[in-house]
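Re: the request from the purification team.
They wanted to know what the chain is likely to look like in 3D before they choose a buffer screen. I agreed to run a prediction and write the result into the notebook, where they can find it.
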Amino acid sequence: MARVDDLSRSLVAFDEHSTLVGVIEMSEKNWLVGGLVPGVTRRPLKKLEPDGEALLGLVARWRDEALKAGRPIARIVLAYEAGRDGFWLARFLRARGIEAYVMHPTSVAVSREHKRAKTDRLDAAMLLRALLGWLRGERGHCQMVAIPTLAEEDAKRPSREREALVKECTRIVNRMKGALARLGIRGVKPEQRRVARRLESLRTPEGTPIPPQTLAALRRELARLALLHEQIKTIEQARLERLEAAPQEGPHPMLRLLARVVGVGVETADMLVHEVLSRQLRDEKAVARYAGVTGSPDESGSKRREKGLAKAGNARVRRGLIQLAWRFLLFQKDSALTQWYREKVATGMRKTSAIVALARKLLIMLWRMATTGEVPDDLVLRPAA
């Protein structure tokens, strides 16, 4: 497998005499743009409206200033922290011949003072220092984020929307159970279809029916729940139609292969493929670190301890992996990974620790399957469609 750049440092030689460097401290109302312009002794700082064309105009003006100072610009580099605005600006700048990068916010070192000064001006200067170190090829200054295409971002929407809808369904069910519990009514499952017909027949312990205002509220909650279920069904059906219409397009072959594993459904396969497995990650360690299922050792002098999961990666992937690991134990009982888990638990390892380790091993196995097509012999697969 070809070695993939991990974006921890620049692989292009940095010539400070012909490179215009800029950083953008972004907010909802305005952008603060700081720069390092060759031939200009001052470090310019300009506040702009959040508009890409205004940013291009500012860069063109700085480039003209460098040219007047006798320093023609051969390379323009702009960077900003990942946040609410996403990646549209990076794609916008790259389409116009500007090197644009998105910095991982947690990778930029900040002062550990309890009450440090924090302003947009100071943050812009900090980002500029980190970017210059990255451009020089030095590790540890900051980490860049892989910029997805618009199609790759859009492909994640169905899985994420479905997850949000499922959470909303859970909230509605819990609200209904709470409303009924306040009346002393227990054992009702609002997610069942026949509940709507049973509401009027339910009685409190005193033998009285549900009060009219509460009954009306419960009916509205059921209407919302039915709408959410319909939307979830629409998302799932649309995904299956896309897979059937273009089975060999983009990541669809990878998704179909993972969905053949007994215990891995289409929803889980779709989430794993679009969130982690289709990314150009460097190696197995990078895959596990992205999912946040690696350890966080704390060693200093004679002190040695483990602080648990790093949880610095994709929380959505981590939650899905833990759930998948429990299902894997049920549906893949003869797998080598399942046998490994049983041996570890039998020798005294805690189940929670063992299931996290199993999830990490399972993710690496699925990553190998998705990238190389290597399928373990002891894995039970569904027949190919």
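For the purification team: The CA atoms of residues 24 and 33 lie 5 Å apart.
Please add any questions underneath this entry.
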